[in-house]
Amino acid sequence: MNSSRRKFLQTGATTAALAATAGCGVDWRNPVRGFVAAAGFDSQPFQPPTAEAIDPVAHVLNRLSFGARPGDYQRVRKLGATPEEAARAYVEEQLQPEKLDDSLADRIVRRFDALDEPAAEMFEYKERFLLNQMVKAAVLRAVYSERQLYEVMVGFWTDHFNIDPGKGDCRWLKASDDRAVVRKFALGDCGLSEPVTILDRLQTFWAGESSAPKPAFNFPAMLRASALSPAMLWYLDGRSNRKANPAEKPNENYARELLELHTLGVHAGYQQKDVMEVARCLTGWTVRGKRQFGKAMVEFNQRLHDDGPKTVLGQTIPAGLGAGDLDRVLNIVALHPATAKHIATKLCRRFISDEPSGAAVATVADEFIASSGDIRATLRKLFATGDFLNARGNKFKRPFHFIVSALRATRAGTDADQQLISYLERMGHVPFHYPTPDGYPEEPGPWLGTMLWRWNFAVNLGENKIKGTRVDLKSLTAHAGGEEKLMAHLLGRRATKEERAAYHDSGAGPALCLASPAFQWC
Questions:
Q1: Residues of the chain with pLDDT under 70
Q2: Are residues 369 and 258 in the same domain?
């Protein structure tokens, strides 16, 4: 494997693999270059890791972020007297994103102003335009944001509450869902949520004041926001879940995914009868379409609601609650022990290993219940487990993580032009493009077939053959303190003797590092 990769990188006969980007040149007018220079990335020498193995600082940078930039290791290491103390300080820093200055990322994504429009205004744009803005903004935030854990959790919840923008009005409404559900609640009450708008007040009016809970920023609140998201009502057919007469059968699509994917998990022991009872509870909720007055408005129609008594997971919901049935159902499932285990397992898979221990999952699930679904408290408990602290270099990067980490590691300036996005397309991991409700897979199996495109990307990145993206490897090497230290920066530890030999023999050392197994895993 090492020999073939060196040969692949060293030889000039890579025409077939590089054909997709050959001759494209570099967009030297990349507007992001100015932002990068303003942030000081181009002018400061930095100190890479010096240990032979991944230390606690390099570990938390690998897991809580999309990868270390030049200078990140040095900055974080100064947060504590020991690597362990510094790592804990970084964890706490990232758990409070509202305290981090993110003005650079804010300036970079400011040009995607359509994404800040109210849901009803999204219909004024072409759906492809909105989707492209969403994808580019997701890439640029991941590359440039200081709030790295927040962006990682945005990706986590995007998969958890996945919506395919290709269905119906989701083409326009997913952009609003991303802002008002996922980004609003991704890391709890961090001061990053939207202010209450007129649309919020109108939707509270339609829902009924009695059914609207007090503002909260935890998993139960996020779950409710998702349940009443215009995009989710379209995607999983909640808008057509009705029972206008005794013969009409409720639509169970959202009820099934609510239990199977969003809360309890597929093996939680619920029955088909529970699915149908939940579907009955959620009848009558709808969202106005793009051709209707008050488009994108979520409302409850009592006439289309099954207001009889129901039994969900053994708990009786009395007749006559109307819109209140929704909150009764969500109260049953949001903090259910099975939900805690399901969410804890997914978080442990994301941050610890693909097969986390039962002890780690139980610890995280207990905190989820004890904190009433507080996302920050749950993550804080996870990051304090011995399983997390000791699981280093064992997570295979998904394509989005790989590309963003390469851009961050090389101090790239990028405007997320289509040529960059095309690599995500070829690797099958473009944000907001997954067609089924379960979201992109976390496990490595589905992504192992992307290696050729990863090597291709590494070569073209190093040679500045990706339009709209630029790196300066000569300057990066100098600021790292030479090739040996640059390798340590890219790998998160000192390179081995074999890795150093391969680096020098390849003729394309940085690209070799980015294509190496050590960089593919974090």
A1: 1-43, 189-216
A2: no
Q: How far is CA 468 from CA 42, 159, 411, 464, in A?
A: 18, 28, 14, 9
Maximum pairwise Cα distance, the chain: 76
Does 126 lie in the same domain as 158?
yes
- Kindly state the tokens that stand for 425: 């397309």
In Å, what is the CA distance from 218 to each residue of 182, 325, 404, 495, 516? Answer: 12, 20, 28, 42, 39
Domain count, the chain: 3
- Domain contains 408: yes
318 and 253 co-located in one domain: yes
Pairing state of beta strands 413-414 and 469-470? antiparallel
Does residue 361 share a domain with residue 322?
no
Task: Indicate whether 34 and 124 sit together in one domain.
Answer: no
Q: Is residue 91 part of a domain?
A: no
User: What is d(CA 226, CA 244) in angstroms, rounded to the nearest whole number?
Assistant: 24
Q: What is the pLDDT of residues 61-105, one digit of tens each?
A: 999 999 999 999 999 999 999 999 999 999 999 999 999 999 999
Same domain, 381 and 425: no
- pLDDT, residue 13, reads 31
Cβ–Cβ contacts within 10 Å for residue 442, how many? 16
Q: 249 is in which domain, residue-wise?
A: 104-334
Tens-place pLDDT, residues 101-151: 999 999 999 999 999 999 999 999 999 999 999 999 999 999 999 999 999
Amino acid (1-letter code) at residue 422: S
* Residue 217 pLDDT: 77
Assess contact for 187 and 151: CB atoms under 8 A: no
The answer, as to whether pTM is greater than 0.85, is yes
Q: Is 283 a member of any domain?
A: yes
